[in-house]
From TrEMBL:
Record bears the keyword Isomerase: no
Positions of the Erythromycin biosynthesis protein CIII-like C-terminal domain: 232-372
Designated name of the protein: Nucleotide disphospho-sugar-binding domain-containing protein
Source organism of the structure: Nonomuraea marmarensis
Family in the record: Belongs to the glycosyltransferase 28 family.
The organism's place on the tree of life at top rank: Bacteria
Upper lineage: Bacteria, Bacillati, Actinomycetota, Actinomycetes, Streptosporangiales
UniProt keyword annotations, A-Z: Glycosyltransferase, Transferase
């Protein structure tokens, strides 16, 4: 959401980013103004319970349920997101009213956003970070939020808001009902206090970039498979580029000599020199890879990652391994070799990349937010 917030600031509007206290430092480092809303909710244990597949770090453990997609445990996920909304909504609604916000922009799991917008009587705009996985649960979400809406005196609230901002190419997103505005995906990877390291010097063989985001390592070392993937590719006629955080590096284990480890380097700086991206199925990694037209291999373990990886594979721009079958080294290696040898996957990735580049920039969408806000948008916008 940072590029759109910056675009609103650059257009002369005021922006506040409401979030639980634990995100305050991250918001400040992004050059934005935080507003503390609510309390922390520990969701790590709940999310860990969603993991599918072996989850033992080597792909050879006993497989769990093969059921994929967010519907596998939707009631539990709904409860988690409702808890997050309840934790934030009172503070957020009070701030939106007192600050006289004109628009509330929220991510698709931050349901305090549309509730607070309804309480303040202003438009609510939903900004997706990937495939619209929660749209099928729209009716269930409305029912789940009814008690909160009744307490606020706003009645039933539509979690989709008045408009959805969508960063995905149409083919990746699939059917997308409701008022929807495409927006060019601009990768944001934080603010760095030193010049980030770049990729190794290019040689006369392919470069495979492996990244595992930040979510899986927070769930536990056994779910962080980047080192396992690198070992699976030992001896492959390719340069292996492993993008990790400093904390993740300590969990990688022994690595082959042809693996180049880069710490805290933004993917957007690494991927222009790569030929293939291997990751955990996270939306940010996937969309950043598509920005650069890269074919991808996904090894997803969480339901939303499985769903994103499935949509990616359906476009032809990548391959998704089934966690129920394990992530053994032979399967990983065979998938990477197949992707490197295929021009079709690269062609599909480049097609999606071209579509994304044609989407309006965040700066172009500021006028859309102003129009929704109407006459009150002359000088304020709230995110």
């Amino acid at each position: 959401m940072v590029p759109l917030a910056w675009a609103c600031l650059a257009a002369g509007h005021e922006v506040r980013v409401a979030a639980p206290p634990g995100l305050e430092g991250m918001i400040l480092r992004a050059g934005l103004t935080p507003v503390r809303a609510g309390r922390e909710v520990d969701v790590t244990g709940v999310v860990r319970g969603f993991v599918k597949g072996p989850g033992n770090g080597n792909g050879n453990g006993p497989a769990r349920s093969a059921q994929a997609g967010p519907s596998a445990k939707m009631p539990r996920a709904l409860g988690m997101f409702v808890d997050l909304a309840v934790a934030m909504v009172d503070d957020l609604a009070a701030f939106a009213r007192d600050w006289r916000a004109d628009v509330v922009v929220y991510d698709p799991t931050a349901w305090a956003g549309p509730l607070a917008a309804a309480a303040a009587g202003v438009p609510a705009v939903r900004q997706l970070y990937g495939v619209d996985l929660l749209f099928p649960a729209r009716d269930a979400i409305v029912r789940a939020l009814e008690p909160v809406g009744d307490r606020l005196g706003v009645g039933p609230v539509d979690p989709l808001g008045l408009l959805t901002i969508d960063p995905c190419p149409a083919e990746l997103q699939g059917p997308a009902p409701g008022a929807r505005q495409r927006m060019r995906y601009l990768p944001y990877h934080g603010v760095h206090d030193r010049r980030p390291a770049g990729p190794p010097a290019r040689r006369d063989r392919p470069v495979v970039c492996v990244t595992w985001g930040t979510t899986m390592s927070r769930l536990g070392d056994e779910y962080f498979l980047a080192g396992h993937v690198a070992r699976a590719l030992a001896g492959l006629d390719a340069e292996i580029l492993l993008a990790v955080t400093p904390g993740q590096r300590t969990t990688l284990g022994p690595l082959p000599p042809d693996v180049h480890v880069v710490e805290s380097a933004p993917l957007r700086l690494l991927l222009p020199g790569a030929d293939l991206l291997v990751h955990h199925g996270g939306a940010g990694s996937m969309l950043t890879g598509l920005v650069h037209g890269l074919p991808q291999l996904a090894l997803p373990e969480l339901p939303d990652h499985i769903a994103h990886a499935g949509r990616l594979a359906a476009t032809g721009a990548g391959v998704a391994l089934n966690p129920a079958e394990g992530f053994g080294a032979d399967r990983i290696r065979a998938a990477v070799e197949g992707l490197l040898a295929s021009a079709d996957h690269e062609g599909s990735a480049r097609r999606l990349s071209a579509e994304m580049a044609a989407h309006p920039t965040p700066a172009a969408l500021v006028a859309e937010l102003e129009q929704l806000a109407g006459a009150r948008a002359a000088g304020r916008a709230a995110v």
